[in-house]
Queue: 2 jobs
Job 1
Amino acid sequence: MAAPGSRRCPPLPGAAPRGPALTAHGAARRPPRPALRRRAHAGGPARAQPRPRPRTRNPDGDVSPWCYVAEHEDGVYWKYCEIPACQMPGNLGCYKDHGNPPPLTGASKTSNKLTIQTCISFCRSQRFKFAGMESGYACFCGNNPDYWKYGEAASTECNSVCFGDHTQPCGGDGRIILFDTLVGACGGNYSAMTSVVYSPDFPDTYATGRVCYWTIRVPGASHIHFNFTLFDIRDSADMVELLDGYTHRVLVRFNGRNRPPLSFNVSLDFVILYFFSDRINQAQGFAVLYQAIKEEPPQERPTANQTLAEVITEQANHSVSAARSSKVLYVITTSPSHPPQTVPGWTVYGLATLLILTVTAIVAKILLHITFKSHRVPASGDLRDCRQPGTSGEIWSIFYQPATSISIFKKKLKGPSQQDDRNPLVSD
């Protein structure tokens, strides 16, 4: 979340190394003194103009680099070192503010107790995405994606200390330092491929009695890589846990006695980050960078010597295998060089009619064979002897002509008075 082209501050505690205090003219060593030259300006408090000072770590354990400032009065005073490439974790950068309109056009307030987190919490409660501090006491909120429109300034131009905490930077004269309001939230839902999760109230010390959950869910990720760039939890009762998002099983637990490794992986795409603090021993907290990794399955590509026909054949074999495994009886495909053509409706009906007529002819032939076999027609001489008085023999005849209807009608035998007709079958 650092500004483009800048690097994060080293995650070491600010007191390591502490660095030597200054001495004057070989005299006994004494603490440096904070008298600063100040320049008044319109629309804001006096801006401190420190003299050149040696660069060293801050003496109070803060995560950002600081410098001692020695002047002619007793006491100790320090400000951020002039390292333009260094950015505080969660800082979006330092930007110019010409005031008409300001970079952030949402809600705003002023406070003589302003800190980074009080401004962020105020903007988050108003449902704004960005929070900005200016001149040490002014807080601005907004959703403006073009907050950079007046240009980016050097980080050293946003080093005016917050009125509520002199260890934090709160912008400068006509310079606004920006943060995402997700910083320091107690809980949240993350689905981006990479992001940073901060302890509650960050960069302030986390409050007592905190219970916070953050869900990190990136569908399709093979594993999630975690890197704790900052981990300052001193109480063994305060803890950070990673849980399986599906089973809620604790995967790993860190506290004041069990610090996390430099980096590690969790082979899941859904992880829950849990934080708990008791009622004593507050500390700076943590900042963890996560990155989800998606592994693409290997894709088989045809070799240079493999022809297109071989590729199509191989794909067809895969299709047939898949069809057999799914119990599909037929796989119908078309040639890739010829577009599919529709079959006319009359052709389908003609084929169906031909099939019906063929079946009907076979059935009729079988019936005709059975009929003639069971009712044999006698000769004309024997017919008179077999005929009983008052009755006449009858048979059924079936005539079939292809592609036409089938006619079934009854035939009668000829009487004795019709001697000239040699055919024993006459029609009604």
Job 2
Amino acid sequence: MVLRSVLFSTVIVAMAVLAHPALSADNCSCRGNGEDIPEGQTVCLKTASGVKLARCERVLNNTSWKILDKDCPTASLPQSAILLFDHG
């Protein structure tokens, strides 16, 4: 009985040690817009409801996109610059 208990404990510890490297991967990434995006980075993703700002996060040891409440950043020209382009 004691031998069985020791053997069982040894197997459990060995399984935990062997699984540890797989559980602690530090170079995780998400796939988005045809690229690998490192964990923690944000990108604008095309979704069914339009373009959304999303961050690559780890959920239950898997990477996943978290859609953020912020809009994707955009750039625009000031109105004066647009008038210069129109009139040459």
